[in-house]
Specification:
The complex is a heterodimer. By secondary structure, chain A is an alpha+beta fold. Chain A is built from five helices and five strands; from the N terminus they run ββαβββαααα. Chain A has helices at about 20-30, 80-95, 100-115, 120-130, 140-150; strands at about 1-5, 10-15, 50, 55, 70. In chain A, a hairpin with a 2-residue loop joins β1 and β2. Chain B is globular and about 85 Å long. Chain B starts with 6 loop residues before the first helix and ends in an 18-residue tail after the last helix. In chain B, about 30% of the residues lie in helices and about 20% in strands. Chain B contains 20 helices and 27 strands. By secondary structure, chain B is of the alpha+beta class. In chain B, strands 10-11-8-18-15-16-17 form a seven-stranded mixed sheet, sandwiched between helices. In chain B, α4 (about 90-100) runs parallel beside α5 (about 130-160) and α17 runs antiparallel to α18. The chains are: A alpha+beta, B alpha+beta. At the A-B interface, α1, α2, α3, α4 and α5 of A face α8, α10 and α19 of B.
């Protein structure tokens, strides 16, 4: 099936089965490999992208469903000041260990800060719990989110 | 392995077979271990297949190979090779820091590349937190040797004695004449300087740590900028011309055989361009197993097709395995009293004598602890790209913790000698011990060959990963202790029930951690604390026979034994009316009750006690008595992979039994130098949160099948459960050691100790079941 997709502001024509998950179309048909395969069932968040600025799991999103919508991936997130800010916070805080989940973490964070520019720890928990990090860099992910938001890095949860 | 008698020896055998071979070779050559590597790397021809290859240099600034670790461009760019695989432990950044420091480079001139796979680099692996201790001296010498060559080049250029020269950040200086030359200006000359001989290298004066400009400073992970932009640098991202995807469907029962499959129907499924049977290559269950390979241009259709294959398996005896049956067998062993064999056998270590002493003590306590099988589940599913070529060579691109064991296996199966197998070490999305195994690499090689020598990228589904892992083995510890009239722990016995192979052919003898008595990494060492710190200890073992593939999971052995032993010490403390900290300090600071099995101390009790004392101070341990019911603090320590760690956990348990770990304080002693503080701290933070996550995870079996399949039924810890963390390194005058593992084990018993204070309930069986922890005011 010939489909026209809008990814990171560019138009791409692909010829794939409509039910093929967006993840594999991005990775292997458009050669945007930053979006990662982790579970295939929307249970880890490694494949997080934005569809019309909202968080979506590309591994369970049939490609036909995004026709006519704007898809943003990690390769395109730096096109906005907010996205750049999140990327920079990730570097400043030196978040990553293996780094495999971090594209998804950055995508989820950018969507969070778009809707809640000054998130509380509870907001962060709610927005980020779908994104697993097996290296467990969560302490730094939390700090980087706050840094990107211009908030003090202190964890305000009861301890 | 069974002959190992203390932690130091155990740590050495944690490294893989290739490392062991290297140790032997070095000994045979009569040279110092570290020096011989350095000499090979300094003197080796840098253009010979590996090293810092000029060919890949930026066009505007050709690189001059100084040696196989360092190349310098005329514009001053210094390219340093990271010799070991990067799996998230930070080695790609940290190892080059050692070289750059001693070559007196300006870090801003440095760029890092992952090294080729080349035997001269030795031990190119991520295992046993060993990269730091094994490279600390050698790579600084490498840097020193490189600096020496640059100084020789300047000496020649200026016709002065090298002894009159000094170096500054990325330049050589002749103070007497005020002349200076940058490393970039000297690069071409230095490349022609004959490499220093071993005597010269050995005589190199390494820097006083007070003068470090790079070591000890926060250096951010080198690949981070690429990762936050989504650049394709992981194994799963590899693309080569003509690449096809492969999916490999294996029997859900360990060691099952393929009886039949309708290949014609398989080939007719959408997206499947080829389908064939691949046969088990060796009798063991660690390598290539029976299965059906699907090949096609896209992966997702292959995964979909794999669910529609008409396969009949001959499941074999493995189909009987179930966790319920294992638990029953463990219970029967416990009830039978006496272990099948003894781990300890010295004076004061006979089973009956020790247990008689326990029975006649003032106070006797007993408790049974158990922990489940666990998976590794690195975020990047297992994958490898392989190309078996018509000319008889093989090329492999793999996100791996090291090619050593896999290459030995591939050579054994294919007959292709290692020198004809070109390996590319690709960044891996996590390892945790899973990626040292040969299975996924061998599958890619076998499928490439059977598909007609085409390049294939084999990618496992998450379900494959969960159900075909080399699991952390479960285990059961049945403790008894006798407390004397002075309140001292006088006698301890442990009937350890573990797992072993009924069919020894099922274990691949070259698997790191393999031994002849238990499943891989399912053994216990006789020196387990507090073996040598109390007068009478008897450790015995019984084995449940089950041919299940197991392997090293981050802090192997320690991640299970620490939970059991340290938790039981809390029970001893309670029974003897002592604070858990006081009991531990009393044991660690008292005289050794008997000689360690090997005749030398297994670890330094003083270093451990210092960590414990510090963590108690930092956490405000003495104030824990004032905590309200439902909140508690626990304390634990462990020594593994040469690292000393003591943790305190503060935990809140709601009346519903819901557990929230609020904060963990950790004090570690990994020697005299934290090489890259930001990376070191990150490893500790990750280990601690990982340890909390382990408390709630399990792998169970029924009808020989793993019952879990993906993150919805084998949950990973999330940001919501990641606690606040305070880490302190106690700097001591000891050689620096690694941090990939040792901060993990104490978390589990520390949290369980805190749960006990909060609820009055002991967690003796993992995973934690919140419903069991309900409490009322």
């Amino acid at each position: 099936m010939a489909l026209t997709l809008n990814v990171n502001g560019k138009t791409h024509s692909v010829d794939v089965a409509g039910e093929m998950p967006l993840l594999w179309v991005l990775r292997d048909k458009i050669d945007l490999k930053g979006t990662k395969f982790g579970c295939g069932v929307a249970a880890c968040g490694a494949c997080t992208v934005h569809i019309d600025d909202k968080v979506a799991r590309a591994c369970v999103t049939p490609v036909s469903s995004v026709v006519g919508k704007r898809v943003t991936t990690i390769e395109g997130i730096g096109a906005t000041p907010l996205g750049q800010n999140v990327q920079k916070a990730w570097l400043d805080v030196d978040v990553l260990q293996c780094g495999y989940c971090q594209a998804g973490q950055i995508m989820a964070t950018t969507a969070l800060l778009q809707s809640k520019p000054k998130p509380t720890d509870e907001d962060i928990d709610a927005a980020m719990q779908g994104n697993a990090c097996r290296c467990a860099t969560y302490v730094r992910i939390r700090a980087a989110i706050k840094r990107a938001a211009g908030l003090p890095i202190t964890d305000t949860r009861e301890a | 392995m069974s002959a190992t008698t203390n932690h130091d020896v155990a740590n050495i055998v944690e490294v893989d077979a290739s490392r062991r071979r290297f140790l032997k070779l070095s000994a045979a050559a009569g040279g110092g271990l570290l020096l011989s590597m350095t000499v090979a790397c300094v003197t080796g021809d840098p253009t010979d297949g590996g090293g810092a290859k000029s060919a890949e240099a930026a066009a505007n600034a050709p690189l001059h190979d100084i040696n196989i670790f360092v190349a310098i461009a005329s514009d001053g760019t210094i390219r340093i090779m990271a010799k070991n695989p990067e799996v998230g432990q930070g080695i790609k950044t940290m190892l080059p820091m050692l070289i750059a420091e001693e070559m007196d480079a300006d870090w801003s001139d440095v760029e890092i590349e992952t090294a080729s796979v080349d035997p001269r680099y030795t031990a190119q692996q991520a295992a046993g937190s060993y990269s730091t201790p094994s490279n600390w001296v050698a790579l600084r010498q490498m840097g020193g040797a490189t600096r020496w060559m640059l100084m020789q080049a300047a000496a020649k250029k200026w016709s002065v004695a090298a002894a009159e020269l000094s170096t500054g950040p990325s330049l050589v200086r002749h103070a007497a004449t005020g002349r200076e030359a940058t490393y970039g200006e000297l690069a071409a000359l230095a490349a022609d300087v004959p490499a220093p001989d071993s005597a010269t290298i050995e005589a190199l004066k390494l820097k006083d740590p007070a003068n470090y400009r790079i070591i000890g400073k926060d250096v951010k992970q080198w690949d981070s900028p690429k990762i936050v932009r989504g650049e394709p640098i992981f194994g799963i991202d590899v693309v080569v011309p003509g690449l096809q995807y492969a999916f490999f469907a294996k029997c859900p029962v360990f060691g099952g055989k393929l009886k039949s499959v309708d290949l014609a129907a398989a080939k007719a499924l959408p997206g499947v361009s080829d389908a064939f049977v691949v046969r088990q290559a060796t009798p063991d269950i660690f390598g290539l197993l029976d299965g059906v390979a699907l090949v096609g241009p896209d992966w997702w259709p292959l995964k979909e097709a794999s669910g529609k294959l008409n396969i009949e398996w001959e499941e074999g005896s493995g189909a009987n395995y179930s966790t319920a049956e294992f638990d029953q067998k463990a219970d029967a062993f416990r009830a039978s009293g006496k272990p099948q064999s003894m781990l300890t056998a010295g004076a004061g270590e006979a089973w009956d004598d020790v247990n008689n002493a326990i029975d006649s003590a003032s106070k006797t306590i007993e408790a049974s602890y158990s922990y489940p099988f666990l998976p590794h589940v690195p975020m990047e599913p297992m994958n490898t790209t392989a190309h078996v070529k018509d000319d008889g060579t093989i090329e492999i691109w793999s996100p791996t913790q090291g090619f050593g064991p896999a290459l030995a296996y591939i050579t054994a199966v294919t007959g292709v000698p290692t020198e004809k197998i070109k390996c590319h070490m690709i960044r891996a999305g996590g390892g945790f011990g899973r990626r040292g195994a040969p299975d996924y690499m061998m599958e890619a090689v076998a499928i490439s060959k059977q598909a007609g020598n085409i390049p294939v990228k084999l990618l496992w589904s998450r379900e494959d990963d969960v159900q075909h892992d080399l699991y952390r083995c479960g285990g059961y510890h049945n403790f008894r202790a006798g407390i004397d009239s002075n309140g001292k722990l006088a006698a301890l016995s442990n009937h350890f029930v573990t797992f072993g192979f009924s069919d020894k052919s099922k274990v691949w003898a070259a698997t790191p951690g393999a031994n002849d008595k238990t499943l891989v990494w399912a053994d216990m060492l006789p020196g387990e604390f507090p073996a040598t710190f109390i007068p009478a200890t008897a450790y015995g073992q019984s084995v449940i026979q089950a041919n299940i593939p197991t392997g090293a999971l981050r802090a192997p052995r320690a991640n299970g034994h620490c939970f059991a032993y340290q938790s039981f010490l809390d029970e001893v403390a309670e029974a003897s009316g002592k604070d858990p900290l006081d009991l531990r300090m009393e044991l660690l600071t008292g005289p050794l009750a008997k000689e360690p099995p090997s005749g030398k101390p297994a670890f330094s009790p003083k270093r451990m006690a210092d960590c414990l004392r510090l963590v108690a101070d930092r956490s405000g341990w003495s104030n824990r008595k004032v905590l309200p019911k439902g909140t508690g603090m626990g304390i634990a320590f462990y020594y593994c992979q040469r690292g000393y760690f003591a943790h305190v956990a503060k935990v809140k348990v709601e009346q519903s039994g819901k557990v929230t770990v609020q904060k963990v304080w950790a004090v570690g002693d990994v020697g005299s130098q934290i090489i890259n503080p930001t990376g070191a701290l990150n490893q500790c933070q990750g280990s601690i949160v990982d340890g909390v996550g382990q408390l709630f995870q399990k792998i169970t079996f029924d009808k020989g099948r793993t019952q879990q399949s993906n993150f919805y039924d084998m949950p990973l810890i999330r940001i919501t459960d990641a606690c606040q963390i305070d880490v302190h390194f106690n700097i001591t005058d000891n050689p620096p050691t690694g941090l990939g593992e040792p901060a993990l084990p104490p978390v589990l018993p520390a949290v369980c100790g805190a749960i006990f204070q909060a609820t009055g309930k002991r967690v003796r069986r993992l995973p934690i079941v919140p419903a069991d922890l309900r409490w009322t005011m």
